[in-house]
Amino acid sequence: MARLRDAPGGPQVLLRAFLGVTFTYAGLQKLTNRNFFEAANPGSIQSQLHASITLSPIGPLIRLAAHEPVLVGLLIAFGELAVGLGTLFGLLGRVAAAGGMAVSLLLFLSVSFNTTPYFYGSDIVFFFAWTPLVVGGSGAWSVDAALEARHARERASAGVPPEQQAPDLDRRAAVRKAASALTLASFAVVTAAIAAAVGRMSGASLQTSGAPQLSPPSTESPSPGSSKGTAIGLAGDVPLGGAREFTDPAQGIPAYVVRPSESSYVGFSAVCTHMGCTVGFFEPALQFRCPCHGSIFSAVTGEVLQGPAAAPLPSIPIEKSANGTLLADG
Ligand code: FES
Question: Which atom of ligand 1 approaches the CA of 277 most closely?
Fold first, then answer.
């Protein structure tokens, strides 16, 4: 313990281990979870990007990213894996920590920006947790430290004083660092491929699911002299005690229409009021459940049945026209 405490950067080892394991796990978890890339799933990257567009201060940027959701999901997953392994092994420690800071900032601005109070969201905490590693580098028990020690030994045995340049020795040290980075990158790619294959074979999946999409509305107008609102589909397509997904025409966000009784239809935003994930419909209990942190909402009133969400799901006015078309936002 005293050895670790006295080593340069020794006290950072525990922080490095935690951040390294967490980011490696986060990257692998995304690659293992096949639902992360399935647009119809409420926990997918597609759903999360879509939900963040209206809630995030960088909404226009997310709207652009939403055109290539799989690529964005892969970049996030591989980015987290690279940051995690680089931090865990202490290779290019400052670069990995700066990458971790960037990922945390991105997640804070997109996913957890609306968390109240702000310290309930983990991304802002992760952002600042990276600071000591950005400033101090990997520290003790790291590949960086081992490579630097070897470089120093070589210079000492060649009799080169610290302030003097030794181009050959310095170049050799740089090549060794690049080779180590390449080895770790190859290890990351192989690990990612195994994780993705295992995830698909084991059928890992989230426990919540969405509801089928409402069939596209007819192109005819709802009915003469009928009510206001935008046609979203046919009332007959929503089963009694069931729900259908649709895109709220007013806000462009995912939403649900629920039919709690024979003649009543209610609509709710599907964007969780905690941190913006897309909720799934859980038919047996007539509830919406959030796959991210477990909030549960009534699918009849939208009220919170279980936190951490504190606010109900915003309701969307739904009306059934005389010819059986459902109209939203009237
Ligand atoms: S986003 Fe956290 S519970 Fe839904």
Answer: 1
What DSSP character marks residue 218? P
pLDDT digits (tens, 9 = 90+) for 173-204: 999 999 999 999 999 999 989 888 887 776 54
- CA angle 209/212/218 to nearest 5° reads 160
Q: Which domains does the chain have, with CATH numbers?
A: 2-202 (no CATH), 230-328 (2.102.10.10)
Does the pTM of the predicted model rise above 0.70? no
Residue 60: enclosing H or E segment and its boundaries? helix 59-65
Find all residues with CB under 8 Å of 193, minimum gap 6, and list them: none
Quick one: which of 321, 296, 315 has its CA closest to 307? 296
Q: Closest residue (by CA) to atom 3 of ligand 1?
A: 293
Q: Which of 113, 273, 275 to mutate to test the pocket of ligand 1 (most atoms within 8 A of CB)?
A: 275
Residue ID of nearest Cα to ligand 1 atom 2: 293
